[in-house]
Design brief:
There is one protein chain. By secondary structure, this protein is an alpha+beta fold. The protein has a single domain, classed as HIT family, subunit A, CATH 3.30.428. It contains 3 helices and 5 strands. Strands 1-2-3-5-4 form a 5-stranded antiparallel β-sheet, covered by helices on one side. A hairpin with a 3-residue loop joins β1 and β2. The mean pLDDT is 96. Bound molecules: adenosine monophosphate.
Length: 128
C-alpha cells in the first residue's frame, strides 16, 4: 500500500508560509522551528521540506541528499541548543511519532528534539 500525504496539515501550511513559525534553522531541504507547546525548556521540531508523512515514508522514498540534509540539520540544532554531547551538553531525546500507535498529531514527518531538563522514562504506560 502506498503512503498518503495530506497537504492541508499544519506543517505543510508552515512550509508554504501560510502560518507563522519561530524558525531555528532553515536549510535546502529541512526546517527547524520551536514547538508551539514546549514540553521541556528546549523543544524544537525538525521537518523535511518534502511531503513525507512519517519517518518510514521518508526513509523509503526521500532522495539521499534530503536524508543527509535532514540528519545533519537535527545534529546542528542539537549543537545550537547546547544539548549535544561534544560541547559537554546534558543530552537530549529525539522522538518521531507515527500513526495511531505512535500518537501522531500532525501527519508530516517531524523529529522532536527535547532537552534542557530530564526527559523521564522512555515510554509511559498507555493512557498516562
Ligand atoms: P506529534 O504528536 O508528534 O504529531 O506532535 C505534533 C507537535 O506539533 C506537538 O508537539 C504540537 O505542540 C506541535 N505543533 C502543532 N501545531 C504547531 C505549530 N503551529 N507550530 C509549532 N508546533 C506546533
Amino acid at each position: 500500500m502506498a503512503y498518503s500525504y495530506d497537504s492541508e496539515n499544519i506543517f505543510a501550511k508552515i512550509l508554504r508560509g501560510e502560518i507563522p513559525n519561530r524558525t531555528v534553522l532553515e536549510t535546502a531541504h529541512s526546517l527547524a522551528f520551536h514547538d508551539i507547546r514546549p514540553q521541556r525548556p528546549h523543544h524544537v521540531l525538525v521537518i523535511p521540506k518534502g511531503a513525507y508523512v512519517s519517518y518510514d515514508h521518508f526513509a523509503a522514498e526521500a532522495p539521499e541528499a534530503e536524508i543527509i540534509d535532514y540528519t545533519r540539520t537535527i545534529g546542528k540544532v542539537c549543537r545550537m541548543l547546547g544539548v549535544d554531547l561534544a560541547s559537554g551538553g546534558a543530552g537530549f531525546r529525539l522522538i518521531s511519532n507515527a500513526g495511531e500507535h505512535g500518537v501522531q498529531e500532525v501527519p508530516h514527518l517531524h523529529m522532536h528534539i527535547l532537552g534542557g531538563a530530564g526527559t523521564g522514562r522512555m515510554v509511559n504506560p498507555p493512557g498516562t
